[in-house]
Design brief:
CATH class of the largest domain: Alpha Beta
CATH architecture of the largest domain: 3-Layer(aba) Sandwich
Structural class: alpha/beta
Helix content: 25-40%
Strand order of the largest sheet: 3-2-1-4-5-6-10
Distance between the termini: 54 Å
Number of strands: 13
Order of helices and strands: EHEEHEHHEHEEHEEHEEHEE
Strand content: 15-25%
CATH superfamily of the largest domain: NAD(P)-binding Rossmann-like Domain
């Protein structure tokens, strides 16, 4: 039986990935950070099938212990400070987790289980100030936030451990991927939640920013399959995962309200919807 170790188990991708690996017969271990308010809602249905190990990406000793305990064949690093906006308010913490945290985990693997295959959750935010459309594996990076810069460090340290230590380490540069498990602070969930509340008469309008912003949105369940497939290849490499289509926030809003047959009245810079 293969053994997998996942960081970021309480996030959207962690939940879907754990389900996928359990279906494939893996023994799944997961890192969790102790807090006064534990949130395991995304894995509540499978929590009794996962081995939880307390630890933190900012703590070297806890990561070494986690690798020693789990003895993984595959490691998926999904943990991160995941909000671009927050990275401007907390740039040092973002760097500690999203950049140095990757190094700590890679070093723990190198010391304790160097034959484990490693997946690093990279991001389309690496491209930032876009140099070409569409972006691909050879597109130059130009991050535009502390989040993007920290993730770029994580990307390159993963490449360096692959080239310097011959470790099987891969980057998955994933564009936006959504699901019912997506955090409520992300725009897709902000919209879907507002649509449901307006439909039930609990609120009257939804305010948004740039409605013409374009995003490539995929489904999280499909993207975690791509993560797993990256670690099944003969040779490690880095991959861009996207749907290949872009849609505006305005389109998303229109389709969401069409589902509940509510006609939209656009007002000002945001939107105001009334039945």
């Amino acid at each position: 039986m293969k053994r997998a170790f996942i960081t970021g188990i309480t996030g959207q991708d962690g939940g879907y990935l754990a389900e996928l690996l359990l279906e494939k017969g893996y023994e799944v271990y997961a890192l969790y950070r102790r807090s006064s308010n534990q949130r395991f809602g995304r894995v509540e249905g499978i929590l009794n099938k996962i081995h939880l190990i307390e630890g933190d990406l900012t703590d070297d000793a806890s990561l070494i212990n986690a690798i020693e305990v789990s003895k993984p064949d595959e490691v998926y690093n999904l943990a991160a400070q995941s909000f671009v906006g927050v990275s401007w308010k907390e740039p040092i913490f973002t760097a500690e987790v999203n950049a140095l945290g990757v190094t700590r985990l890679l070093e723990s693997i190198r010391l304790k289980k160097s034959d484990a295959r490693f997946y690093q959750a990279s991001t389309s935010e690496l491209f930032g100030l876009v140099q070409e459309v569409p972006q691909k594996g050879t597109t130059p990076f130009h991050p535009r936030s502390p989040y993007g810069v920290a993730k770029l460090y994580g990307y390159w340290i993963t490449v360096n451990y692959r080239e310097s230590y011959k470790m099987f380490s891969c980057n998955g540069i994933l564009f936006n991927h959504e699901s019912p498990k997506r955090g409520i602070k992300f725009v897709t969930r902000k919209i879907s939640k507002a649509v449901a509340e307006i439909y039930r008469g609990e609120r009257e309008f939804l305010s948004l920013g740039n409605l013409d912003a374009k995003r490539d949105w995929g489904y999280a369940g499909d993207y975690v399959k791509a993560m797993w497939l990256m670690l099944q290849q003969e040779e490690p490499d880095d991959f861009v995962i996207a749907s290949g289509e872009t849609h505006t926030v305005r389109e998303f809003v229109e389709k969401a309200f069409k589902v509940v047959n509510i006609e939209i009245a656009w007002k000002g810079k945001g939107v105001n919807e009334e039945k």
